[in-house]
Amino acid sequence: MASADDHLVHLPRLRFDELLEELQARIDAARGTQDRVRSLLEAVLSVGRELDLEQALDSITEAAAVLVDAEYAALGVIGPGGDNLSAFHTVGVTEEQIAAIGPFPKGHGILGEVIRHPEPLRLEKISQHPASYGFPPHHPPMNSFLGVPIRVRGEVYGNLYLTEKRGGRQFDEEDESVLSTLAVAAGMTIDNARLYEESRLRERWLLANADITYSLMSGSEDAEPLELIAERAREILRSALAAVAIPMEAAESLTVEIAVGVDAETHRGLVLPLASTLMGLAFSAAAPVTSDDVRRDERISPEPPRFPGLGPAVAVPIGTGEGGVRGVVLVAREAGAPVFSGEETEKLQGFAAQAAIAMELAGRRKEAERIAVLHDRDRIARDLHDLAVQRLFATGMTLQSAGRLIDHPEAAERVLRAVDDLDETIKILRSAIFGLRARVSAVDTGLRARVVDVVGEKTPLLGLTPGVRIEGLVDTEVPTEIADHVVAVLSEVLTEVARHAHVDRVLVALTTDGREVSLTVADNGVGTSPDGRRGGLRDIAKRAERLGGHLDVSAPEGGGAVLRWRVPLPGRWESGHPPARGRRGPADRC
Question: pLDDT per residue over 109-123, tens digit each?
């Protein structure tokens, strides 16, 4: 009877080798599956540790490329509306390649296919799909493709895109399964990171509001809270530029009081019309106004140029239409940066509304303090009138009566002089009482508003709207007499430009550093006459010379003319003393 060993002996050698190879393959497959599961768990744990949203998105993209052994990986974040990509995180493409390719994709072609149909998509060759329409120049070649959506709380947040599996292989079902599992973990990680970021942002907005409220209630200068508003808005929203503009008195314009960040000097001091600017539109509508690209926005006037290198922007009113808009805050990001989301705009609007409330409370506090001072002045005036003046008047009457009883001429004359002195003293006291009880019936129009008015008056004559830039404390540093000269000079210069220059661009700049005031008018017209001046400019030069200043007229290489009229401010630069009596500006008046 044959044994089992006899049967084993008679098995073909080839069959035995095949069994061994199959067993080894299954062992390797099991080990590979185990290693892949371990890698997947490690990837899930790795991305789950991230709390910063941007870092979490980068970690998810890197983990996806490693898990399916892809040469290129990308994570596209779906923007508002759900039909395009607002952000794009990549792995495998260098910075030089990105710069050569150009802007990141917006979600067309194969990428858009996964957006429109949020299901896993696996392709052997991208170019064979009907939605494919090719790659831009300098783009690396890509054939195999695997796309998987990422869902957060049931909604599609973005998509993972993997291309070019290493070794020339194709993505298989196991790759799709692994990537889908990673996408589920990525959704939870993104949700946690968003919640954490929202809590941190809420905390930062609250701290910013507390800083502004404290600054206002502590009696800081008006510019300090405005600067805090700009700085905090720029920091929290990760913007390149932030500016705050406030309305001008007696003029339908805004003036940019504060600007921080990129090219802040270009914006600081600008006078903006309520139309053709984001700030003006936000002020007029008492509602946020956004722009995807301020450089190409048709609502914004190109002159003067003020947004080089910037892209998305949003302007939000400080206050509401019911309570009155106190100003506008604008933030802008660099070109190519994500546009401001509705949530970011809403948070900025809430921040501005809280700042407006703080400004209102601070204004009411100052008004209460002013009223208290006025009441105190009334009390002092009443006491002076009822006590001091009456007593002096009675004393004068007594001396005048006594003078008739004095026989000595010299003594009688002295008594009469004392009576006259008392009369003068009574007049001085009554004048002081009148000053204490006087109320300011009207607000003096400052130099800033007067300059804007002149520009507005000359606009029909010029046939264009000049750009205006005002920098420095022109309303308080420039005395009234010099301010009158500045207004007259500006009017004459703009008239000369309209008559002789044939221009299509005029820029007006008024600046002061506390030591001198400078008025600059630049145009791109026919330039100056051979003697360096157009006819009426001689009078303008003499006006500057009478005030101790001078007039410079130059012709830039590109054509046109630049006129600069400068005069010193009296008593402001060497002695450190205030202006002489009789030269009182608006700040000198009570």
Answer: 888 888 888 889 988
